[in-house]
Amino acid sequence: MKEADSKTPMPPQEAEDSALKLYIALNRASQWINAHGDRDIRKHGLNRTEFGVLEMLYHKGAQPLQQIGGKVLMSSGNITYVIDKLEKKQLVQRRASADDRRLIFAEITSQGTQFIEEVFPAHTDIIKEAVSGLTTEEQKQASKLLKKLGRHAQDAFK
């Protein structure tokens, strides 16, 4: 298949093939990179969503329950379930807002902070290894292109 430059439009079938190949490659790469991360997270008794919520609370501080779902791409019903599980593990706690008692925040506990500080550096190394099939420069290029692709797909979805 020939490379098309920005001035020469691809024939329709070639553009369709290219889009489908990209879709498949993105999904397969995502599945395998996630498999590396998931295997590591499971060793610590969490799943990807629990770890993602805990990591977000560690780095961003207490968050209203209603807003967590949008930040970790989950429905609000699932967030309640995840926060319940993290509370049972004493990694997160709920706190009512001082200004509006209807507003409930999730915040990381000292045990949760200790957990992330112990686990996150090695987890980062596992992710770095999983994406090391690309050079650092290629990773930067891929990240930039995927952000552009994601923004376009999001805008087109509205």
UniProtKB/TrEMBL annotation:
Keywords attached to this entry: DNA-binding, Transcription, Transcription regulation
Domain HTH marR-type: start-end pairs: 19-151
Membrane-spanning segments: none
Family annotation (InterPro entries): HTH_MarR-typ (IPR000835), MarR/SlyA-like (IPR039422), WH-like_DNA-bd_sf (IPR036388), WH_DNA-bd_sf (IPR036390)
One of the GO biological process terms: response to stress
Molecular functions per Gene Ontology: DNA binding; DNA-binding transcription factor activity
PANTHER family: HTH-TYPE TRANSCRIPTIONAL REGULATOR MHQR (PTHR33164:SF56), TRANSCRIPTIONAL REGULATOR, MARR FAMILY (PTHR33164)
Protein name: MarR family transcriptional regulator, 2-MHQ and catechol-resistance regulon repressor
Organism: Paenibacillus algorifonticola
